[in-house]
Amino acid sequence: MKKPARFVIGLGVPLVAVMGMIPFVSCFGKTLLGVPTIIVATGSLFFIASASMAACWVLFDRAEVS
Which residues cross the membrane (predicted)? Predict the structure, then answer.
């Protein structure tokens, strides 16, 4: 049970974020504080991927570190 959940959190969340957010945000063509929303969305994906990897480590791999 741990392995599928680890893959869903570690790979599934960033994949869904990229495949869902980028096409959705690219339709708007607006800016946020002068920065195009597509750039803001792409930058936020860095934090989403980092958070999902941190969640995988805390939930599944933390006990294995010696």
Answer: 37-60
